[in-house]
Amino acid sequence: MSEFWLISAPGDKENLQALERLNTVTSKSNLSYNTKFAIPDFKVGTLDSLVGLSDELGKLDAFAESLIKRMAQSVVEVLEDSKGKVQENLLANGVDLTSFVTHFEWDMAKYPAKQPLAGVVDTLAKQLAQIETDLKSRTAAYNTLKTTLENLEKKSMGNLFTRTLSDIVCKEDFVLDSEYLITLLVIVPKPSYSQWQKTYESLSDMVVPRSTKLIAEDGEGGLFTVTLFRKVIDDFKVKAKENKFTVREFYYDETAIRRERDEMSRLLSDKKQQYQTSCVALKKGSTTFPDHKVKVTPLGNPDRPAAGQSDRERESEGEGEGPLLRWLKVNFSEAFIAWIHIKALRVFVESVLRYGLPVNFQAVLLQPHKKSATKRLREVLNSVFRHLDQVAAASLLDASVEIPGLQLSNQDYFPYVYFHIDLGLLD
Fold it and tell me: For position 241, what pLDDT does the model report?
């Protein structure tokens, strides 16, 4: 399971014996795997300051968890077709998350235990806030690029009535730069091919004989060219409509077509270079669009690219990571490490508030073996530490301030300090 329970109990002889009983019962019943969780001795400060830190740490804990979940989701989005490799990109200090938690050691260099607790909490809060700011900026840039690319790709999807034709037609299909002649594109239903061939020359005066050519087709019909005099365009369109032939509004503009193809190539290249690893890239010199949902087959010219035929290829895996993925991996690790340090701080603060001074408690990390065992594990914990109820109640009565989380009427109250760590970041 990707779930951990972080608890603490007083460090006196009676409670250390209780922890031994807990280990014995959970081991024999195969309920959980238990390890000691080392927390350094911090400068305690005043009771008032601890109460304030308790509230602040609770909010920071929730913020950190939310942040790493968002970062994990961003990794999923960036990896796209390599989603099976998400977990190997979500590491903490180079190891998997479970190993990091079970072998946790306080980072004295980054978060010195000798400085006041408030200072440690402030360092963690600023670190996480900066990561969130950078995450918003970087993902916004990625999403803008992705949206622009998707909008271009949508233009190359659909049938002959709606999709772009710039990746289907060629210059040779048209009569260009003529003062009198023009080439139109007409969509003809497949059952009407024969009718079109027999009637198109007579749909209007001044249609060039034998000027039609089928250049592409999809599942519904074909795209035909026809050349006629400009002066009869309107009449030809009316007669074509009467015969259920659709003139597609399209005028060949080589500059605009090249610009559209270059834009698609540039965006795909930017997405690959800046954000992805093992992603899809355009082949060198490609002028086609990416994968389409509707197959459109060009005809009559073996050199013409097929619309709907992907002219991209998978790059070899492990060839390199884009800056966004690298940033996400590094800063996910930093945020996750900070989150577990926050959990350790919460255990320390709540243990002092609950068990009093001098500081003397033992933190233990429990990893339930299976979901169905959690109810039984909770019963064992409550039974082993039920004697702490009276201690906690006495502490509440003696305290002159309200201590968060110690209301005895709360159904989630436990006689020991308890925090939950859920590593199911993608659930």
Answer: 95
Neighbours of 178 (CB within 10 A): 12
Q: Strand pairing partners for 188?
A: 222
Q: Tell the burial category of 84 from Cβ atoms under 10 Å away from its Cβ (0-12, 13-18, 19+).
A: exposed
Q: 56 - beta bridge partners?
A: none
Q: What tens digit of pLDDT does each residue of 358-397 get? A: 999 999 999 998 887 888 999 999 889 988 876 544 443 3
Q: Cα(96)–Cα(74) distance, rounded to whole angstroms?
A: 18
Q: In Å, how far from its chain's centre is CA 196?
A: 50
**pLDDT of 158 above 80:** no
Helix-strand-coil percent breakdown of the chain, rounded to 5? 50, 15, 35
Mark out the alpha helices in 276-412 (DSSP H runs).
323-355, 374-384, 388-398
- Give the CA dihedral 256, 260, 265, 268, nearest 10 degrees: 160
What number of other Cβ atoms are within 10 A of residue 208's Cβ? 14
Of 111, 93, 115, the C-alpha closest to 102 is: 93
CA distance 305 to 310: 9
Around Cβ 55, how many Cβ atoms within 10 Å? 11
* Mean pLDDT, residues 305-315 taken together: 38
Q: What is the mean pLDDT of the chain?
A: 82
Residue 259, Cα to own-chain centre: how many angstroms? Answer: 31
DSSP of 49-67? HHHHHHHHHHHHHHHHHHH
Phi-psi region of 310 (alpha: psi -120 to 50; beta: other; left: phi over 0): beta
Average pLDDT value for residue range 23-48:
92
Q: What sections of 11-116 are H helices per DSSP? A: 13-28, 47-79, 86-89, 97-102
State the pTM of this model.
0.69
Sorting pLDDT into bands at 50, 70 and 90, what band is 305? very low
**Amino acid symbol at 413:** Y
**Stretch 53-58: mean pLDDT, rounded?**
96
Task: Let me know if 324 is exposed, middle or buried by CB neighbors in 10 A (0-12, 13-18, 19+).
Answer: buried
Section 180-195 average pLDDT = 96
Nearest to 37 by CA among 367, 332, 307, 397: 367
Q: Could you tell me the sign of the dihedral formed by the alpha carbons of 110, 115, 117, 121, in that order?
A: negative
> CB under 8 Å to 38, separation ≥6 — which residues?
104, 105, 106, 363
Distance CA 19, CA 363 (A): 10
Indicate the helix (H) or strand (E) that contains 292.
none
